From TrEMBL:
High-level lineage: Bacteria, Pseudomonadati, Pseudomonadota, Betaproteobacteria, Burkholderiales
Gene Ontology MF annotations: symporter activity
Gene3D superfamilies membership: Sodium/glucose cotransporter
Topological category with respect to the lipid bilayer: Multi-pass membrane protein
Example of a GO biological process term: sodium ion transport
Protein name: Sodium:solute symporter
GO cellular component: plasma membrane
Family membership noted in the UniProt record: Belongs to the sodium:solute symporter (SSF) (TC 2.A.21) family.
Amino acid sequence: MSTLVGFVILYLVASIAIGLYAATRVKNASDYAVAGRSLPLYVVIATVFATWFGSETVLGIPAKFLEDGLGGVVEDPFGSSMCLILVGLFFARKLYRMNLLTIGDYYRQRYSRTVEVIVSLCIVISYLGWVSAQITALGLVFNILSQDAISVPAGMLIGAGIVLLYTLFGGMWSVAMTDLFQMIIIVAGLVYIAFVVSDLAGGAGKVIDHAAAAGKFEFAPALTSKDVLAFIGAWVTMMFGSIPQQDVFQRVMSAKNENTGAAGSIAGGSLYFMFAFIPMFLAYSASLIDPKMVQTLLDKDAQMILPTLILNNTPLFAQVMFFGALLSAIMSTASGTLLAPSITLTGNVIRELYPMDDKQLLFATRVVVVCFAVAVTIFALMSQGTSIYDMVGNAYKVTLVSAFVPLVMGLYWKRANTQGALLAVIGGLATWLLMENFGGESIWPPQLVGLLVSFGGMIAGSLAPQVLGRPAAVSH
């Protein structure tokens, strides 16, 4: 066994130990879902930062940047960091005051149980691709570290088992404590690697100048209707579509008070935006250090560029720091995104069918965590060949067209009601699905059309004579 693999195993053991220790704090469903609403600011910042600093940030975004420049990564990090900042500015305090356990609870309190169940199912479905991307990345990492001794599918199973182990018992407490530990590794590891790789490439200035000359910093789309609409569609997908997500919600709601939740979301989003550029810098540095390797992997699997660069060109300590940071990023996102849909499915769908007390809810949630882990691992195994960046980006389209408009309009428009919410959800979903399947020739992105129809459905349904649902019960 190599020294690098030994350090990685030690890191994994430490993560599991921290997660299991945090599990001792779980006494009820609230502890499991939102850490008893007791986290201090520095932990909230860490766990919000870890929301999206996963496989797509370290592997997917750099590959996309090399191919398409900044214009190709408008969704992430630009859209995702803006999402977290918007949550802190406009959503965190209002939602915190409602004392909710899940984001699905909001749709029940504001509208009806029907809206709650439909939106919650949409939220759960949206996590399939997201969590699967993290499982896929874990499989890649274990395959690389073992020098093909562990196959990618076997690596996926191992990675899923490790994340499941500490998430299952500790819930949000384990997620929060391991996120704090893993964020320290991510920040320290990436900063150190940036200095090492920068020296190999001839200095940061040379890398930045070369990227600028190659047009990699061109951000704005071409001034054609199709390109502008595609740019807007990509931007709003991540920025708005990820706001009504349970993982974002539970991280903010885990704070000890509303101001801590809001400040943690803004700070975590800003920190994410700054550090998400380091993997892009590393990937472009690789094109100067080993251009032949980069070109080969761009044609084969661009996600392998950074791991290959580190293994082939840096000393052992740099390798330990990089793979520690990479595993930290993936595992922190995987644990949170495994927990979030499981809590939503149990609390907002299953509990509506089978009422249960707090102990039963906690037990049922843990059972669902196991089931969802199995489901996303199977989905990941079936999705091999799909890029991590695409798997994550597609996850937010369903919540953009179904959940965003009822959330924001319910908080900021008093006349929003159940009929409007139902038309917004059903109209947005139906339009998006029709466009995805039959709108191939249209210049309009399907999710953007779905968002506009959802907004129109909310307005029309709320102002029209009430036929569906009950009058709105404004609770804010």
